[in-house]
Write a structure and sequence with these properties.
The chain has 16 helices and 28 strands. By secondary structure, it is α/β, with parallel strands linked by helices.
Length: about 575
């Protein structure tokens, strides 16, 4: 499949050792005295996660409006292109996680439908997110270049031609050779003016992707790598530089989709350390919407699931190639637009191939069961109704078979809410799309306490099964990455399994998924577990539980309590 934007681009494949060049700045007055500036429109998205159809529940709304769906996203992109000075002056970009953690309609075909849909929608360049590595580097290269899946073949019966856009990843290197896995940057010419795009994956990818997914790869610092390639681009006469960064931040809850209230998170430090020659940072990963100026750079994010498009207008000096002005607006992809026919046809084709399996009813819920975490001492580090339910399902799948007495679920693995009423296989898949295996292993009581202390180091709560109870002290100390066990957040003596107090020297059988057992999300104590036995796929355990326990209700949120609720003895 061809893409005109690709033919116009010069892809940078190697890095040169160069010295930093002083930034050239053009003022509006100077620009007015010369040739008319070139107007370039960037249309940006991020964290699409294979949502070809509009997401359900709260995930399908933003700014109070129903939003999302490839049919409407493609139409919105086309409408925004028409607003450009010239349509060929528009470049469509993305900041990673286009695939992975996808609904069944895309995931059942190894996300090929999403790549086809985004290619049809006119995407030109995308950075590689952490979820692009879910099935490993070789699979990512197949997604880029084409070819049938090495195990499942051409699942829909037609050849897979590869992406009609260029994935960029400047800081993911092959460990053995030190060479980038993919092109680190691209140069796109618009009316003779060069615009450089640097793709960037978050440096912390190995901590949040299975070890198999990042085997043989090394990830470098985002700002340092961006600065390195910015220097190389300027050596090639590129003065307008855009970084497509799969890392982000969060603004205050009161901020709207085009605000930048109290922006915080990794994006702030990264933008502050970037060279002044970098003009725009299109970010992602946190699934937030914001429109910021950080350290003189335009920094944007379009939330997630194709619900927003960031419309960025650049005015570039035709003589120097410098950005004169840059502004952005996050635009809601509303569903009152006419659906794009090509996208509708693509979705219909894959739904036909998928067949009746998606609609098979696997259980019932009495009420909506949400993934949202409750507040715990002022932070969203509490329990989740759906997270607890999944932990219960994992324990039920391994208590008799492997002798498990507890199960813990990572929050990032819970991807969607469950609506009230019948639950289809497709809905269950959307909640748990990773196909992780359950792993039951031995941990000592001391290791269990350390595991719970690691929650406060990583900033991630493990959702516990119904057998688990413990008390958190908000005034306790947090350990360090090197020694989480030194923390005192979890009240010693409060942890019980099945109502029996955990002792430091005793051994307990605990179930987690294989992502966690490999130390994922920073829970490294789990790598010290012994007698590990790999069991069924987590989705299969969830489906079996929904069927056996139907109708299911939202579990009570009483497994983690604070010292305010449980006074010290």
């Amino acid at each position: 499949m061809s893409n005109p934007g690709m033919r116009r681009a010069a892809i940078g494949l190697t890095a040169l050792a160069v010295t930093a060049l002083g930034a050239v700045t053009t003022t509006p007055d100077q620009a007015d005295a010369g040739p008319k500036p070139v107007a370039v429109k960037l249309l940006a998205l991020n964290d699409f996660h294979g949502n070809l159809e509009p997401p359900s529940g709260s995930s399908g709304t933003i700014a109070g409006q129903p939003a999302g769906g490839a049919e409407y996203l493609a139409t919105q992109l086309a409408e925004l292109r028409k607003r450009a000075a010239k349509e060929q002056n528009t470049i469509t970009v993305a900041a990673g996680d286009l695939i992975g953690a996808s609904p069944l309609l895309s995931a059942a075909f190894h996300d090929e439908p999403t790549i086809e849909a985004l290619s049809l929608a006119g995407l030109d360049y995308a950075s590689v997110g952490n979820h692009e590595f879910d099935e490993g580097a070789d699979e990512l290269l197949r997604i880029q270049n084409g070819g049938c899946h090495p195990v499942d073949g051409c699942v829909d019966g037609t050849p897979y031609e590869g992406a009609g856009f260029q994935y960029l990843s400047a800081n993911a290197f092959k460990t053995a050779s030190g060479q980038p896995l993919l092109a680190p940057y691209a140069i796109h010419k618009v009316q003779g003016v060069k615009v450089g795009f640097i793709g960037m994956t978050l440096e912390g990818t190995p901590r949040i992707v299975s070890q198999q997914g990042v085997a043989g790869l090394t990830f470098a610092d985002e700002a340092q790598t961006a600065n390195r390639y910015a220097r190389e681009l300027r050596r090639q006469g590129v003065e307008t530089i855009v970084v497509l960064l799969h890392e982000g931040g969060t603004q205050d809850a009161t901020g709207g989709i085009n605000d930048c209230k109290g922006i915080s998170g990794p994006i702030v430090d990264i933008a502050n350390r970037m060279d002044p020659s970098i003009d725009v940072v299109v970010s992602g990963h946190t699934h937030q919407a914001y429109n910021c100026d950080i350290n003189g750079k335009l920094v944007t994010s379009a939330s997630s699931f194709g619900r927003l498009v960031t419309d960025i207008d650049l005015s570039i000096d035709r003589r120097t190639g410098d950005v004169i002005s840059a502004k952005a607006e996050n635009v809601v992809v509303t569903r009152d637009l006419a659906p794009d026919r090509a996208q509708s046809d693509l979705i219909k084709r894959y739904k036909t191939v998928l067949g009746p399996v998606a609609g098979r009813e696997v259980g019932q819920t009495t009420t909506e069961i949400k993934k949202t975490q409750e507040t715990l001492f002022g932070t969203t580090m509490g329990e989740s109704p759906l997270g607890n339910l999944i932990a219960d399902a994992q324990l039920a799948a391994t208590d008799d078979e492997q002798g498990a007495v507890a199960a813990f679920m990572n929050p990032g693995g819970v991807r969607a809410d469950l609506d009230a009423g019948p639950v289809t296989y497709e809905e269950a898949f959307t909640v748990q799309p990773f196909a992780n295996n359950l792993v039951t292993l031995d941990l000592t009581g001391a290791q269990l306490y350390c595991l719970l202390e690691q929650q406060f180091v990583t900033g991630r709560t493990l959702y516990p099964s119904s057998t688990v109870r413990y008390v958190v002290d908000p005034a306790g100390t947090t350990g360090t990455t090197a020694d989480a066990c030194a923390g005192t957040r979890v009240v010693r003596g409060s942890l019980t399994l099945g109502g029996v107090a955990v002792t430091a020297d005793a051994t307990y059988r605990v179930t987690v998924n294989n992502f966690l057992s490999g130390g994922g999300d920073g829970f490294t104590v789990l790598t010290g577990g012994t007698n590990a036995v790999t069991g069924m796929i987590d989705l299969d355990a969830f489906v079996a539980y929904l069927t056996a326990e139907s109708p299911v209700s939202a579990p009570a949120l009483d497994r983690i309590r604070t010292t305010a609720e449980v006074p010290a003895a």
